Amino acid sequence: MKSKSRALVALTAAFAMTAALSACGRDGGDSGDTGDQSDVAPIADGPATGTLEVWAMGAEGEKLPELVKKFQEENPDVTVNVTPVPWESAHDKFTSAIAAGTTPDVAQVGTTWMGEFVGLDALDPTPELIDVDKFFTGGQETTVVDGVSYAVPWYVETRLVYYRTDIAEQAGITEPATDWEGLKEMAKKMQSDGGAEWGISLQPGGTGSWQTVLPLMWSNGGEIVNDDMTEFTFDTEENVEALEYYKSFFDEGIANKSPAQGTTEADFASGKVPMFISGPWMMAAVEAAGGEGFADKYDVMEMPEAESSASFIGGANLAVFKNTENRDAAWKLVDFLTQEETQVEWYDLTTDLPSVQSAWEAEALSSDEKLAKFGSQLENAFAPPSISTWEQIATAFDSQVERVTKTGSDPAEALAAVQQEATSIGMG
Question: Region annotation Disordered: residue ranges (predicted)?
């Protein structure tokens, strides 16, 4: 996996507190590049004042008001108003606000949106107030576009395979799968010998399915852009093989082509579907669904390998918008939210994994065996290229994945279609 188009995150020693992450994006800079901020205006000293409007998505939007109470106590002349925004409508809400000049002061921004928003001249460059060296390098580099940082990494995450250990044992499985063939055999046995209705839950296309399919491509040695970011490479042999493998789970009846929405936790707890792929936030969800003692009935394992094990790296950044009328206070809030103590408290509230390296020293993170496996997977976790057109291309990709899984379309033809559309859309 040599492409500089995706973010490679090395968290080898995350739990030894010496982790180092590396990433590459559209800026084409070196892996240690954290952005040239030499021309960025400084932030004035003193406490924050005035009013700040903040947008945040999902659980973050719901929990953030509790976290900013301390910031307001430390800065009694500032008021922070948090507006929760649903993830499914967030991107359109932001682009509409950018066009209308009605953006908030501070917002949670998806890492794959950075290139687009910078291209729209919407974000304020990161000032020297922020110590970028405290972040994992890979997380920090998701904020860098064309050599300049425009945000800070708020939290990071990756995906693993969740599996029911008790059902695996009933099916005669003593060790978790480590490669593609092993994963499929494990899923089949949990159906045939473990009493599960389905072997694994996989998304049959639709929004975000690329986050599962792309890691299989990377695992197989595939890329979606070439090294110098001049051409898309969706239709390579390696990528076709990966999509064929994904398709086989649906063709062979191992994964459901038409799963019910919002039942992952319940189906996992009941044993109906004993495996799925997701991030660390699902640990609390499945344990709540399974009830007392359920934590001992499941485990997580790293993504199976072809040439290597690979997963998707996600998370979110915190950005200040250029049209803010309270820039100093906005960046002081961002700085507060990325202090070690605040990051640990945020993990306790949301289970979002800290982007600040020293925060991993906290007992809540360092002592959890399941969480440690997420840290290990982050050694081989990647993101798509930081290009302004990614959301359009991802939509086309998701659509073709759905055709493959639900209607049996040929993977080679599907990826040829993605290649053609991506080339037509361009990299921005």
Answer: 25-47
